[in-house]
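Supplementary Methods S3. Complex input for the adenosine-5'-triphosphate-bound model.
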Amino acid sequence: MTPRPTAMLIPIAFLGGLYFAVFSNVASFLPALLNGLTVTIQVAIPSAILAYAISVAAGLGRLSRNAAVRLMSGAYVEIFRGVSLLVILFWLFFVLPEFGLTLSPYVAALLGISLNAGAYGAEIIRGAVQAVPRGQYEACVTLNMPGWRKYSRIILPQALIIAVPALTNMTIELLKGTALVSAVTLVDVTAAGVRQNQLTYRTIEIFSVLALIYFCLSQVVRFAGALLETGFNRHLRTGRS
Amino acid sequence: MADEKIRFEAVSKRYGSLTVLDQLDLSIGAGEVVSIIGPSGSGKTTVLRCLMTLEPVDDGVIWIDGIPLNKELRSGALIEASPAHLRRMRTKLGMVFQNFNLFPHMTILQNCSEPPVYALGAKPTEARSRAVDLLKMVGMESKQDHYPAQLSGGQQQRAAIARTLAMQPEILVFDEPTSALDPETIGEVTEVIRALATKHSYTMLLVTHQIDFARDISDRICFFDKGRIVEQGPPDAVIDSPKETRTQQFLRKVAKAR
Amino acid sequence: MDWRWDFTFETVIPRILPGLWVTVEVTVLSFFLALFLGLFLMLAKRSKISFLAFLAAEFIEFMRGMPLVVVIFFLFFVLPMAGIYLPPIWTGVLAMGVYNSAPAAEILRGGLQAVPKGQWEAAYVLNYPPHQAFRRIILPQAVGPVIPGLGNLLILAFKETPLLSFVAIPEMLDTAKRIASETYRFTEPLTVVGVLFLILSLVSAVFIKIVERHMIPEMRHGR
Ligand SMILES: Nc1ncnc2c1ncn2[C@@H]1O[C@H](COP(=O)(O)OP(=O)(O)OP(=O)(O)O)[C@@H](O)[C@H]1O
Ligand SMILES: [Mg+2]
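Predicted complex, serialized as structure tokens:
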């Protein structure tokens, strides 16, 4: 990863932020915003983990030899990619109880976000598995590797390396998706910001802080992705033309 | 030489700390066919790219017809050439790439007829009939409405040669024109180049790994190593009785590979 | 569960269909705005003026980490403060246009980068003037690779329109919420909206596949 000039802005923003937080009227809304940030993070991390698991399962499912598995994974992907996250959230929270299944706001948020992101992730994983060169499969056959070993030891590790950049983007999209959880009555950082705006009318300040928070979060994801990528690629750098 | 077409005068080219061309001197007469051979990384492609003004040179002057190419004469002094000067000088030069670089969104005929229109201001109808003639000459008339992706490598390269000729250059430059080709299509391309070398009066500069082909068509062979000409002379002399040990080593390796 | 078909057909669908029109309108308008802004962003990012390139790159990065709702709310609150009173729909179009300009810029840039360097060189040795080389050689080849990306962006934009319900722009989801709050029935309106989205995005995905397939078929297996 090339060092981006923004990296320098972060410490400056942090110090400036401290001053700002203590000496300006930001103090009036900052605590509420940070409470919201906690909710955002509490939703984002578990749903990201869940989304990765779903991605791998559904992504491999779409390549399965079993037609029923293929069909189900395909239907899942199309449905959850086809419908807006916000509609999914509303549906999980307000309609599912009609079917006798009442979810808590937190569970509804988690499920909605991870199912939505997982559908995109499944396509990423599928593409990455297909991008592993044919020769790798053929080598597995000549080495007599059993099917599951072939996937767990040879194909998936290579596919994940290919998928890291796209999964990074998916994770950032997931993070942005958490801004919609006010639909299921959770008060995340965005909802907190909007609420504080109605109370204090400090629109510019609130939204600047909000924007900075999201920027920082997405940069953390991006940095982690870049780290993962270089770590994975360490062994591959030579030997590939 | 009476009528000198190209002269490299102490031309140097560096990439960072790597000196790729080292004070190169090379003179080529009008109508002469010169082949450059040498090990990989010795700077053969770089010579051609500098001549084509695809790469700026760091030191020295390249002359074409006694006019500086990479410099311009302004009130008695040589200054860096302007884009307009480079454009003017490039009309004398044509290049055939190793990987053809045909325009994939145009048919073969368009590839050959559009550049003269957009770069030289030729009349579309004239450019078109010239292109048809040239495609006939390289044996591609039946494929003129095909797109590059629909053709074999050998056919693409013949079309690329026709496109280069359509610009009516005086100097032809080939960078390993056959090394991206399947063995069975190499012959059809070398035949076209051979015809250009023997039946026409182009000045030609050719980089190739096909020693026999180079011997056949060249007036002179230059052996390149580490950005310098180690040995040059008539093909038979350089190939059959090389004087320099590095040339001998290289030719022995190539002979073994065949 | 009780699902009422008469309610679905007599109340829900007739009221939601106008919302669909708003959705389509906002999608298309904001998409073209995004393309327009994205083109400038892309040119700025490729520009030789390094400060401009830096600004464009950072703006793109910044926008890509920003939730669309935040942009919507921001414009919704700030524009009136600045004395600019737009109809809500236009604010929505503006928000989505600005938001999607970043990915649009990246897609356009990717298209240009997909054109091999050899094409620039070939145009150069054939003495094309630079602007002709760009227009006649590079641009036509950049269009093909850009189509799928822009198609996906259009579908994404379409699926983002429900966020405008946060500021009560009468698109489909907003209409559904209104019906729900009037009749205390969530099931039918929300399900109808979900199914409509599903159908429309499936249809548009197929449509984009077709466009892709018919785009300059000779080039499909080109370099
Ligand atoms: N754009 C560049 N940047 C840095 N180094 C370069 C560049 N182009 C060429 N080189 C280096 O310059 C040297 C000469 O390259 P050149 O392509 O001229 O060799 P060559 O004789 O044509 O070799 P080959 O037979 O493999 O084509 C090589 O060591 C190469 O790595
Ligand atoms: Mg070379």
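Chain B is about 40% helix and 30% strand. The radius of gyration of chain B is 18 Å.
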